[in-house]
Amino acid sequence: MNVDIIIPSFRSKELTSLCIRSFEKYRGDFDLRYIVVENSDDESYKKDIMSLTDSIRWIQNPTSLINSEANAFAIEKALPFVKTENVFICHNDVA
Fold first, then answer.
1. Mean pLDDT, range 67-87, rounded to an integer
2. I want to staple 33 with a disulfide (CB 3.0 to 4.6 A). Which of 24, 38, 42, 55 is the partner?
3. With a threshold of 0.90, does the pTM exceed it?
4. What are the angstrom distances between the C-alpha of 61 and each of 3, 28, 35, 41, 86?
5. 92 within 8 A of 23, measured Cβ to Cβ
């Protein structure tokens, strides 16, 4: 089964990395694609995240929105990049 996973992030290299590594460890037969939306202008950890797997799309989304509004905006930015019927929206601190 193919699944696109949308991960909103805000300057959270460690949480985003752990989130993706956790999914990769337990992926089984799933074909996972990650859409990481960085809700700031911080690109300092982009290279590290992109090196975790070949199935990551990084979206830089500088915004002044905070909390739930920022997450909703990140999801809206990611949806045009979804290619599967199955979409999982994941906060990077819950995986």
1. 94
2. 55
3. yes
4. 22, 31, 12, 7, 23
5. no
